[in-house]
Design brief:
- This protein is mainly β.
- About 0% of the residues lie in helices and about 40% in strands.
- It contains 1 helix and 27 strands.
- It has one helix spanning about 55, and strands spanning about 1-5, 10-20, 25-30, 35-40, 65, 75, 80, 85, 95-100, 110-115, 120-125, 135-145, 150-160, 165, 170, 170-175, 185-190, 190-195, 205-210, 220, 230-235, 245-250, 255-260, 265, 275-280, 295, 305-314.
- The strands form 7 sheets. The chain has a 9-stranded antiparallel β-sheet, with no helix packed on it.
- A hairpin with a 5-residue loop joins strand 3 (about 25-30) and strand 4.
- It is globular, with a radius of gyration of 18 Å.
Length: about 325
């Protein structure tokens, strides 16, 4: 456990490295950021990261971090929870809420609650009313390496009152280390996606991917920049067992993503196109669309969200 950097208030950010089965991952206590992922025999990280804490505080905010309590967008910065309307932090265009507001879990210091050679568990506490969200909540993130090799992230959110929860990991992946995504192939196991309006909010429609630039049902070359990608693919109507949903390949390296979540959101980070964000989560702006899968949580129904990245050298 090394000191990665120091925040403006003097608190140290730690870098925690876990390893096993030919896979190594480094997680920061700031934002629970997945800073580095390496396979034995490969001389570069498979995810976009930086050695500078100030980068994560500024230009690389969200890179590798857990975002929440509600990832993605909430239109109008408002949500009705248990019959009560809550006004949220309008940190997007001063009208909407993005990734839980300005004080989401991505930019706070998490506590280390458990650690061993192959796993680490971090915890963040959210107070009732922070960024407008109701309830006192505890978010636990457990990163664990297992046979595969695979890295599994389990995010568990408990609450003392009704609230909304939709956390996710926001890593950008570039398997060849080029920072250009120029030689990648993608397959997404989904027949439908969520079209968006000019402001990247879901319209509420579920559309077939067939005949669109969003059709990755077969392994397809990734051509970032040809068509902007900032969309959610519909995997299921309810949270379920851990299920493969996406494959990404470059050269002899492949990554299979599995999740319990109802959607997988892809973001090409235009105009940089340095990597592809792959975010397993519920559908965005769910409070506005009653036919979307619910992201409600109560004291009796904590939210457990699991994502797994499995790697192979072909």
């Amino acid at each position: 456990m090394n000191v990665f950097g120091t925040l403006a208030d003097g608190r140290d950010v730690r870098a925690l490295t876990i390893a096993g089965h030919g896979l190594t991952a480094t997680v920061l206590t700031y934002g629970a950021i997945l800073q580095d992922v390496r396979l034995d025999g490969i001389d570069h990280s498979l995810t976009l990261g930086t050695d500078s804490l100030s980068d994560y505080e500024t230009t690389m905010a969200y890179h590798g971090a857990i975002v929440g309590p509600v990832a993605n967008r909430i239109s109008g910065a408002r949500a009705i929870v248990d019959g009560i309307e809550h006004m949220l932090d309008p940190n997007l265009d001063k009208r909407h809420t993005l990734h839980g507001g300005r004080r989401g879990v991505h930019n706070r210091l998490w506590d280390i609650t458990d650690q061993d050679e192959a796993f680490v568990e971090l915890t963040a506490h959210l107070m009732d009313g922070e960024a407008g969200f109701p309830a006192n909540r505890t978010v636990r993130a457990r990163f664990e390496i297992s046979e595969g090799p695979a890295l599994t992230l389990t995010i568990t959110t408990t609450t003392d009152a009704p609230t909304i929860v939709n956390a996710t990991n926001h890593s950008y992946w570039c398997l060849d280390g080029s920072g250009q995504m120029g030689d990648h192939f993608l397959q997404v196991h989904a027949d439908q996606y969520l079209p968006t309006d000019d402001n990247s909010f879901p319209t509420g429609e579920l559309a077939d991917v067939a005949g669109t630039p969003f059709d990755f049902r077969k392994m397809t070359a990734v051509k970032l920049g040809k068509t902007a990608i900032d969309n959610t693919y519909c995997l299921a109507n309810t949270r379920g067992p851990l299920t493969p949903c996406l494959d990404l390949r470059s050269g002899n390296i492949s990554m299979t993503v599995s999740t319990t979540e109802t959607g997988i959101h892809l973001y090409d980070n235009a105009p940089m196109y340095a990597g592809l964000a792959i975010e397993a989560q519920g559908w965005p702006d769910a409070p506005r669309h009653q036919h979307f899968p619910s992201i409600q949580a109560t004291p009796d129904t904590p939210i457990v969200q699991v994502t797994q990245w499995k790697f192979a050298l072909n």
